[in-house]
Amino acid sequence: MGTPSDRAPLAERVGQLLDRGLPLTIVAAGDPVLRHGTEPYDGQLEPALLARFVEALRVTMRAAPGVGLAAPQVGVPLRIAVIEDPAPVPEEVRLARGRVPQPFRVLVNPAYESVGDGRAAFFEGCLSVPGWQAVVARHAEVRLTGQDEYGRALDEVFTGWPARIVQHETDHLDGVLYLDRAEPRSLSSNRAMVERWAQPTPEEAARALGFELP
C-alpha cells in the first residue's frame, strides 16, 4: 500500500518535488521507481509545470554532473529525459569513442532501434549508481523517435557516444539500468578507473579482467 503522496495525482507530486528546491535529489539503485518503467507523457503536466520540471532536470543533470538524466532518476515515473554533453575530452578520446558535443535536448516518449549490426563497448557509469563503472556493449548507431517538450516530432539517427547516451536514458524509462547490460567482470570503482582504465578504449581492461569485447 503506497503512502498518500505516492497516490497523489502526478502533477501534484511533481509540484511538491519542485517546491523543495534545486537541484533535485537523484534516486539511487535499489529504489523501485527505477525498475517499474514509466507511463507515456500525454499532457499530465500543464505547460508551465512541464517547463519547470524540464528546467529542474537540466539543473540537476548539470549539478551532478552528468550528460543525461531521466525522470525516474528524480522519482517521477514519466517518459521524459534530458541530455547534454559538452564533450570536454582529449582528441584521442573523441576519436576513439565518437564523443562529440550535444546541445541540451528534451526527449519525450523516446524509443530507439538499431541501425545496422555494429556494436561498440566502452566503460559507462550512471548517476543512480554512483562510484562505479562497467563496460557495456551497445548499438553503434540508433534511430531515435519521439517528441520534444513542445510536442514536435523527433526522428533522428545518433552515432558514437551520443547514441550511447540516448540508449542509456531511454533504457531508464523502461526500468533498465546500465548494469543489466554490462559485462559483470568489468565492474570497476571510479578509483580503479582513474588508476588503471583511463585509456580511450577498454581493450586493456578486457585482457586484465578477463572479459570479451564485441
UniProtKB/TrEMBL annotation:
Q: What is this protein called?
A: Peptide deformylase
Question: What does it do?
Answer: Removes the formyl group from the N-terminal Met of newly synthesized proteins. Requires at least a dipeptide for an efficient rate of reaction. N-terminal L-methionine is a prerequisite for activity but the enzyme has broad specificity at other positions.
Q: Which Pfam families match?
A: Pep_deformylase
| Textual note on the cofactor | Binds 1 Fe(2+) ion.
The coenzyme or cofactor needed here is: Fe(2+)
List UniProt keywords, sorted A-Z.
Hydrolase, Iron, Metal-binding, Protein biosynthesis
Gene3D superfamilies with a match to the protein in the record: Peptide deformylase (3.90.45.10)
**Could you tell me the gene encoding this protein?**
def
Question: Which HAMAP family does the record associate with it?
Answer: Pep_deformylase
List the active-site residues: E169
**Reactions that this protein is recorded to catalyse:** N-terminal N-formyl-L-methionyl-[peptide] + H2O = N-terminal L-methionyl-[peptide] + formate
Q: Which GO terms describe its molecular function?
A: metal ion binding; peptide deformylase activity
User: Which species is this UniProt entry from?
Assistant: Streptomyces variegatus
- The UniProt record lists the EC number as 3.5.1.88
Some GO term, biological process aspect, for this entry: which one? translation
Q: Indicate the family of this protein.
A: Belongs to the polypeptide deformylase family.
Positions contributing to Fe cation binding: C126, H168, H172
Question: Looking at the keywords, is Protein biosynthesis present?
Answer: yes
Classification via InterPro entries: Peptide_deformylase, Peptide_deformylase_sf
Q: Which residues form a coiled coil?
A: none
